[in-house]
């Protein structure tokens, strides 16, 4: 133990004696670890933000929507959930409540919304009064769509914060008229802002009554998505199975044939998005971790130069009785300490970069550094230092002391 402490002291003394060279040696490790930590912290923050957004839906929520496989989409085909599907679900599934159907009105892509010369293109979503309870989203000012609005097909709307800003409307625009696809609509409320997710604004929309959307739209058959609540948590799976069986029967799907729709719980939706985020984070982290290998090569090169510069020092140490093993331990420990120091600085710098990126990009969420990422970064940095420090250490250990003492 005493011998190891002596070797460590000599390694630290050598590092301090060659400060500038030590900084250059660790620079590659610092950059590599900082890049990995920055990516992991931003992606972890995004994952937590997504979890918080879906947690508002509750465990008793179900979402039913159409699903078109990629190969069919490439052929220009698209599966849809029809009004008949929605009506059958409401009539035949007893476990559900707070049913909220929704579809893209006017067109599948959106429409122009204008007021006093200001114009923006946005999604026009037709829905019912159950939307705010099913999705746990409520107006910031004004009111939401009511059952009377829907039954009487009133030309009213609730707008998102981004639409309000794009049209240069006041903070409370209730009572003002805007035109949707050339038709006048009365603004009765503005929804609470939700920010962005994956770079897409969640506040860029206009909500209109469901039956109003059917009256003004040119769609032959709207693609309806449904959000609903189940009357108790222990009946969620039962409700999902009944909806699945009902839709398969309505769509005349044969046994073994894939569903052309999806029935998902809020937890499953959250898991799907989180899985995408995690996979993206892993790929990005793997890509930037290549810079750690570059840093390791830098350590090896500079340590080889260090061995050449310290040839006489090595010769003196061997002449005084230092064994090849002790010389090798010293150089390996130097490389490991330099890598570890680079790892510490890299973690701090990476977290700072992550905080900066998350503050600049809206909707990402605060950067979060998992402990496993910190531990893995330190371990990887140390291993890189040891592996790439092995060749210089072996070269120093094999050096002939007489030849070394003659070196100028």
Automatic annotation (TrEMBL):
Domain ABC3 transporter permease C-terminal: 287-401
Domain of life: Bacteria
Topology with respect to the bilayer: Multi-pass membrane protein
Residue ranges of every copy of the MacB-like periplasmic core domain listed in the record: 22-246
Record-annotated membrane-spanning stretches: 23-46, 282-304, 335-357, 369-391
InterPro entries named in the record: ABC3_permease_C, MacB_PCD, Macrolide_Exporter_MacB
Major subcellular location class: membrane
Key words of the record: Cell membrane, Membrane, Transmembrane, Transmembrane helix
Cleavable signal peptide: none
Pfam families: FtsX, MacB_PCD
Subcellular location: Cell membrane
Stored PANTHER family: ABC TRANSPORTER PERMEASE YTRF, MEMBRANE COMPONENT OF TRANSPORTER-RELATED
UniProt similarity note: Belongs to the ABC-4 integral membrane protein family.
Descriptive protein name: ABC transporter permease
Organism, scientific name: Novilysobacter selenitireducens
